[in-house]
Specification:
Layout: E1 6-9, H1 25-38, E2 42-46, H2 52-61, E3 70-76, H3 88-95, E4 100-106, H4 109-116, H5 120-136, E5 140-146, H6 148-154, H7 156-169, E6 173-178, H8 185-198, E7 203-207, H9 214-224, E8 228-231, H10 245-255, H11 268-278, E9 296-297, H12 300-308, E10 326-327, H13 335-344, H14 354-369, H15 377-388, E11 396-405, E12 414-423, E13 426-434, H16 437-450, E14 460-468, E15 479-486, E16 491-498, H17 501-520, E17 524-525, E18 531-532
Parallel strand pairs: 1-2, 1-8, 2-3, 3-4, 4-5, 5-6, 6-7, 7-8, 9-10
Antiparallel strand pairs: 11-12, 12-13, 14-15, 15-16, 17-18
């Protein structure tokens, strides 16, 4: 389409109002660089004067040579009793030194009368004075009409007067805000069309996700003629979040024909994950377009079809947004899932072989018992190798003993593990203390095996999760243990299930160690001269 849509990112300001979302000033600079490289038009950096971190960001970003994006400072109109040139908020906005300033003003009479406790005319003066003063000082002004859709529903005439006040004062863009996130898409589209018919300046849209309609409402506004789109990466924001630009941008480009990011759209998934990482939040798997599950297939019928023709169950090619197809292995799997996953892992599995069917049958049986292989690809690979004859027993447990000692009510409990393993014709007995029984068992097992397999010194357990599977059985319930292990180059997950948490942990731990050793052990001779692997 010939119409240009400008993307305005407010992750660094509105996004940080979301629960658990926090960025340092340096984090904000890193994100701003990535947003600029992606092709975002405006980056809202924060509210100067509200906190030292935002002012630090504005100071730092002035030294960063952005190639595309303009940085915006955000604040409110002047206060009712302050002359505009003396208003602290307006002065802080100018001091931020950004080329763009975004201010919000009241549209809804409820806020004018109850929150500000001023007259209708005084509110119009606040808007006009603030916009005009910022324009006089050489700023590009984005005017956010806060609670526009609520105000329009309550008194459409007055809502329009506020927009006209901003327009006459020189606002470059007027943005209609669904601040409470409760407006329906058809209401948004109708209201935006009405506003555009009466204004001369470009109109924008800013929505929230309280009805899970943030993206839908944004797209409805664009259909009605809005050319300025505000939102956040990953939908970060207060309450239920802001409109998610990681959904809106690819939809505008791939579904509606607007050239938003060009070929840079292929970096969207990486950008999304980087923002989550810098926020110190786990990247949500079920995010559309960019989530790990966005192109994940679990049902056997789906996988069989996707392997023949991807469009059967994928609305876009995953790589168009930098994502990738994933095939999950579970009790819903058919042979197609197993074969696809085996190929993905670089394993050879003949679809006509008895081994392929045995793998499918065992997966279904184990998942019925409580196993889950979706997040345990290490255990899944070992299962395939077991049935194809590629799994070599590298060590054998002869016995282990776990003891927990607590000397008094206030003393910390201490765990000790005693393990006896056999490697070839030799045995090793080792004891170790640990922070809990699983840590003690992990430490003892490594000590017992390191004489035979020194490469175990390279790995470390990095995550440990326990899930109770049948809570109605209380302390007798089965548990599923999922552990993540890393070796400095890669990571893998393994799983174990038992009614005993130590036993479940042992199963997952043995799979983890075995997985690493199979990847990094060459055949050698033991002391008896027998080949081991």
């Amino acid at each position: 389409m010939s119409t240009t849509i400008r993307i305005y990112d407010t992750t660094l300001r509105d996004g940080t109002q979301g629960e658990e979302v926090s960025f340092s000033a340096e984090d904000k600079v890193k994100i701003a660089r990535r947003l600029d490289a992606f092709g975002i038009d405006y980056i809202e950096g924060g509210w100067p004067g509200s906190n030292p971190k935002d002012m630090e960001f504005f100071e730092k970003i002035r030294a960063v040579p952005l190639t595309h994006a303009k940085v915006a400072a955000f604040g409110s109109t002047r206060r009712a009793k302050n002359p505009v040139e003396e208003d602290a908020n307006i002065r802080a906005l100018l001091a931020a030194g950004t080329p763009v300033v975004t201010i919000f003003g009241k549209t809804w009479l409820l806020h004018v009368k109850e929150a500000l406790q001023i007259t209708e005319e005084e509110n119009l003066e606040l808007i006009a004075d603030s916009v005009a003063y910022l324009k006089k000082n050489g700023k590009e002004v984005v005017y956010d009409a806060e609670h526009f859709f609520d105000g329009h529903r309550s008194d459409a005439g007055y809502a329009m007067r506020t927009l006209e006040a901003a327009q006459e004062a020189g606002a470059d863009v007027i943005v209609l805000c669904d601040t409470n996130g409760g407006t329906m898409p058809w209401e948004v589209e109708a209201a935006v069309r009405g506003v555009i018919a009466r204004l001369r300046v470009p109109v924008g849209i800013h929505t929230h996700n309280d009805c899970e309609l943030g993206a839908a409402n944004t797209l409805a506004a664009v259909r009605a003629g809005a050319v300025h789109v505000q939102g956040t990466m990953n939908g970060f924001g207060e309450r239920c979040g802001n409109a998610n630009l990681c959904s809106i941008i690819p939809t505008l480009q791939l579904k509606m024909g607007y050239d938003i990011a060009g070929d840079r759209l292929r970096s969207l998934t990486d950008l999304s994950r980087t923002v989550s990482e810098l926020a110190n939040l786990k990247h949500r798997k079920n995010l559309p377009f960019v989530g790990e599950s966005a192109f994940a297939h679990k049902g056997g019928v789906h996988v069989s079809a996707v392997m023949k023709t991807p469009v059967t169950y994928e609305h876009i090619p995953p790589e168009s947004v930098g994502n990738a197809r994933r095939v999950l292995v579970s009790d819903l799997s058919g042979k197609s899932n197993v074969l696809y996953k085996a190929t993905e892992l670089g394993l050879t599995l003949d679809e006509r072989s008895p081994a392929a069917q045995k793998v499918v049958e065992e997966i279904k049986e184990m998942e019925h018992y409580g196993y889950r292989f979706e997040d345990a690809e290490g255990s899944f690979e070992l299962l395939i190798k077991k049935h194809t004859g590629e799994l070599t027993k590298l060590f054998e447990l002869e016995r282990f003993k776990i003891s927990i000692h607590k000397d008094s009510h206030d003393a910390e409990a201490r765990s000790e593990a005693l393990i006896k393993v056999r490697v070839g014709d030799e045995t090793e007995i080792t004891a170790a203390e640990g922070n809990g029984p699983v840590n003690a068992m992990d430490t003892a097992l490594r000590k017992a095996l390191e004489r035979f397999y020194p490469q175990l010194r390279d790995i470390q357990l990095t995550d440990y999760k326990v899930r109770v599977l049948d809570s109605q059985n209380a302390t007798a319930a089965k548990v599923r243990v999922l552990i993540e292990t890393k070796n400095g180059h890669s990571s893998w997950n393994t799983v174990g299930v038992s009614s005993d948490v130590v036993e479940a942990s042992w199963k997952a731990l043995v799979d983890s160690v075995t997985y690493h050793l199979l990847k990094h052990t060459q055949p050698s001779l033991n002391r008896k001269g027998t080949a081991t692997v």
